[in-house]
Design a protein that fits this description.
The chain contains 17 helices and no strands. With 439 residues, it is mainly alpha-helical. It folds into two domains: 3-146, no CATH class; 158-438, no CATH class. Helix 14 runs antiparallel to helix 15. The termini are far apart.
């Protein structure tokens, strides 16, 4: 709190309204924000408890707690900062007594009590002008409180292997990342260990979000929604899984076809995000081509979607947890290798070498080559060459997925996805031709 506001506050408490009105307005504004936070969380608690009137606090009590926390911070700033711990521990005692009383009646949950303590702390933070962070925390708390059922449902869908995979990769990252040198080495100084590991975490993070959404929403909503979120994890793996499943579930072949095309469509906005994070200038060059490819996918997805019926996936696994340590390390090796080969190909074979590596690398997985080319664009070769390389990688990936669905899927699936994949391939070729013309 600045000196002038502290002085005005002290004068206001001592003499009344003789203080500066603008400074008083600032005090009132911060108090209003604190009360709104208390009201937000209080209303959520009031709604959640329903007819249970024995709950610790609700829509009236939480704003009072916010007021208490705000006044405690204000008085502590004027008199002595040592007063704030006294106010805080006094409040903790009140909350503790309330908890023990309700616990004796069989109500063992401590969620509301913890929320009350947070409101007290956040109100003090607002007085000390830590407003944005306080608001963000308040919104997160309110969201977690209101999503009780959804959170419990989500946890039920996560298994022990998922938790251990997340913990292992997180632990390895915390330990390994600070030890990795942030400098290039090797022939032509191509490889940077820290950059490589950053890319591993970036891709794993995007894929893990898609994996969680797949488990939380996809299986619940059906095959098509699983295709949407599964596309963030691995459209190739999902295409292969859906193609095999179509043979045993002929009645919902159109659902599997829609899921495959949706997963392949999601690849394009995902690729744009990957490019943008690494090379914003190249991302702008690729924006229109990727929007066109996305539009083509959306059009065919809508056509197929309208012909489908609701069909659940029954929780069957179609994509693996991308936070598995082996998968992450393997991606790091692949990314480093592709980055190295792409650079050498450019040095010894020029643009043709880069394009050949892009096409071959894009067959099984698009992420590693997209990140590699994006990193080298503007340094080792120009953005037009990079755009050609990315489009060739996307073309190769579409060809592989088309072949997978045609070879391993039911003939009806092949018939339904042919138009979508053909459109992807033709548009991709036209875009490559365009870049050849302007390049």
């Amino acid at each position: 709190m600045n000196d002038s506001l502290q002085t005005v506050t002290k004068e206001f408490l001592t003499y009344g309204f003789e203080s500066s009105l603008p400074e008083l307005g600032l005090l009132a504004q911060r108090l209003g924000i604190a009360l709104l936070i208390g009201l937000l969380i209080g209303m959520e608690r009031e709604f959640s408890r329903g007819k249970d009137q024995n709950s610790f606090a609700g829509a009236r009590t939480f704003p009072i707690i916010a007021l208490f926390g705000y006044v405690a911070a204000m008085l502590s700033s004027i008199i002595s900062l040592w007063m704030y711990p006294v106010f805080f521990f006094t409040f903790i005692m009140i909350v503790s007594i309330s908890y023990f009383v309700t616990a004796r009646e069989g109500q063992l949950g401590i969620t509301t009590e913890l929320a009350a303590i947070l409101v007290f702390i956040l109100s003090g933070m607002i007085f000390w002008n830590i407003i944005l962070l306080s608001a963000i925390i308040a919104i997160i708390v309110a969201a977690l409180l209101s999503l009780k059922t959804q959170v419990h449902t989500f946890v039920e869908k996560i298994n022990e292997e998922d938790i251990f995979a997340f913990l292992k990769l997180s632990l390895v990252t915390i330990i390994i990342l600070p030890l990795l040198p942030d400098k290039t080495f090797g022939p032509h100084n191509i490889l940077n260990p820290r950059i490589i590991w950053y890319m591993v975490i970036f891709i794993a993070g995007i894929s893990f979000l898609g994996y969680l959404l797949t488990k939380f929403i996809g299986y619940q909503k059906g095959i098509k929604y699983t295709g949407i979120f599964g596309g963030f994890v691995s459209s190739t793996a999902l295409t292969f899984a859906y193609s095999k499943k179509s043979n045993a579930n002929v009645g919902v072949v159109k659902n599997y076809a829609a899921g495959i095309i949706l997963a392949c469509t999601i690849v394009y906005p995902k690729v744009f995000l990957e490019i943008y994070v690494v090379n914003a200038s190249l991302a702008m060059t690729m924006l229109i081509p990727l929007v066109i490819l996305t539009a083509v996918g959306v059009l065919h997805s809508v056509i197929l979607w309208r012909q489908t019926k609701t069909a659940a996936l029954n929780g069957e696994t179609v994509v693996k947890n991308p936070f598995e340590l082996k998968s992450a390390l393997f991606f790091g090796l692949i990314f480093g290798a592709i980055l190295f080969v792409s650079k050498l190909s450019q040095i010894y074979f020029g643009e043709k070498g880069v394009l050949l590596v892009s096409f071959i690398s894009g067959l099984p997985n698009i992420d590693a080559i997209v990140l590699s080319v994006s990193q080298l664009a503007g340094k080792s070769f120009n953005e037009i060459t990079a755009a050609k390389g990315i489009l060739l990688a996307l073309l190769a990936n579409s060809l592989l997925k088309f072949a997978l669905s045609a070879i391993t899927g039911h003939r009806e699936l092949r018939r339904n996805v042919t138009l979508g994949f053909t459109s992807f391939i033709v548009v991709n070729l036209l875009l490559i031709l365009y870049f050849y013309i302007i390049g």
